[in-house]
């Protein structure tokens, strides 16, 4: 069986380090850069900026600039990004049932 190129591209994108965690963080609503950085452990600002640009280019994330002093920038999911919610929900259910963490890490 040949794997569909679209499916392969989707898994490549979602499997890229930090991408899924950033998207999951945005599932609950718009976030500022610093909020995303604080919610995703061990994610550097440079990598976050790169991943957000990539997600914008893919049409999954929107960057909204508010002309305030200081300027406020928020990131939110587009409809395309929000369409991933059922997938993340299923992954959350699956991980709760099947993934066990080191008891010292919990």
Automatic annotation (TrEMBL):
<keyword id="KW-0804">Transcription</keyword>
<protein>
    <submittedName>
        <fullName>Winged helix-turn-helix transcriptional regulator</fullName>
    </submittedName>
</protein>
<keyword id="KW-0238">DNA-binding</keyword>
<dbReference type="InterPro" id="IPR036388">
    <property type="entry name" value="WH-like_DNA-bd_sf"/>
</dbReference>
<dbReference type="GO" id="GO:0003677">
    <property type="term" value="F:DNA binding"/>
</dbReference>
<feature type="domain" description="HTH hxlR-type">
    <location>
        <begin position="4"/>
        <end position="103"/>
    </location>
</feature>
<dbReference type="InterPro" id="IPR002577">
    <property type="entry name" value="HTH_HxlR"/>
</dbReference>
<dbReference type="InterPro" id="IPR011991">
    <property type="entry name" value="ArsR-like_HTH"/>
</dbReference>
<keyword id="KW-0805">Transcription regulation</keyword>
<dbReference type="InterPro" id="IPR036390">
    <property type="entry name" value="WH_DNA-bd_sf"/>
</dbReference>
<dbReference type="Pfam" id="PF01638">
    <property type="entry name" value="HxlR"/>
</dbReference>
